[in-house]
Specification:
3% strand; 6 helices; mainly alpha
């Protein structure tokens, strides 16, 4: 399916071809009428005839390039050059024929066909110049827009360019990289002009003691039944336990220090008042002692007699 710009280009070429054909027919009729009336040919009419013939040739070459008959005529830069050039020429001959044609051939002594052909030549020439200028402007804007995406668009053919069909190229996403769980200080990064390489130095072997001889190893290390990670190193070898002997001393022994600590009374942090139940009124004590925190029965001072 053709793009919108390609269809617009075809429509522009049809309009340009139609108005160029009209101007060519009218200028031929004007030149023929002037020669039949024994009048000199207008320079503006000759200019229009030359530009119309040149435009026919360029349109034919463009069609041949589209049909792959002539490759260099289908290039973008060739079409841009000839459209801009012919636009300037068509505007120049339109101005010339407008200034000379009707003023010369539209008088009382000149026949009507000569005046009418001159007027129609001016109108057709201006229409052809404006349509050609519109297409040249559209082409230049399109080329400038696509040069940001395709810098070498001028060297390509008109049919091979995807006009306004694609956006700017999106860079492809890189594949996920493998992240190494290695500290950065162990990596050796070397960069060169052409490429950058990531190299890892060889990790040095840990400094370990030389293997010991069998006669220097401890006894627990020589036991094969030891389970690494489960048994204590010194429990790898089964210890020889003494035979169990029945004990005749069945009485429970009590440590005298422990027994004395049981009888030690520790008072609270506040004054403790001991009340006794009496049938008679209690006698007033003749002494009073403030018991400090942490006092026991051995540190209480005796009352004075």
């Amino acid at each position: 399916m053709q793009s919108t710009f390609t269809l617009t280009r075809i429509v522009f070429f049809c309009i340009i071809l139609f108005f160029n054909l009209l101007s060519f027919i009218f200028v031929l009729f004007n030149i023929g009428t002037a020669r039949s009336a024994s009048l000199p040919v207008s320079p503006g009419a000759a200019f229009v005839l030359f530009d119309s013939s040149l435009l026919f040739i360029l349109l034919t070459l463009t069609y041949a390039g589209e049909r792959q008959y002539v490759k260099w005529t289908s290039l973008v830069k060739f079409e841009c050059i000839w459209t801009c050039m012919t636009t300037l020429l068509r505007f120049a001959d339109s101005i010339t024929v407008s200034a000379i044609g009707p003023a010369t051939f539209c008088s009382a002594s000149v026949s009507f066909p000569l005046c009418a052909s001159s007027t129609l030549t001016v109108a057709a020439s201006w229409l052809c110049a404006m349509s050609l200028g519109a297409y040249a402007t559209t082409l230049v804007v399109a080329i400038k827009y696509h040069q940001q995406v395709r810098p070498h668009i001028l060297g390509r053919s008109m049919s091979s360019v995807a006009w306004f069909a694609e956006g700017p190229p999106v860079p492809a996403k890189d594949a996920p990289r493998l992240v190494l769980s290695i500290p950065l200080d162990t990596l050796d990064i070397k960069s060169s002009d052409s490429e950058s390489a990531l190299t890892m130095p060889t990790i040095p072997e840990p400094c370990v003691l030389p293997p010991q001889e069998a006669n220097h190893r401890p006894k627990w290390a020589l036991d094969i039944s030891a389970r690494p990670g489960r048994d204590h190193p010194f429990l790898g070898r089964k210890l020889q336990s003494e035979p169990s002997v029945y004990s005749c001393d069945r009485e429970s022994r009590v440590d005298p220090v422990h027994e004395a600590s049981r009888e030690t009374l520790v008072f609270a942090n506040y004054m403790t008042v001991v009340r006794e139940e009496r049938t008679s009124a209690p006698s007033m004590p003749n002494w009073s002692v403030f018991l400090r925190s942490g006092s026991d029965i051995h540190t209480i001072p005796l009352p004075s007699p």
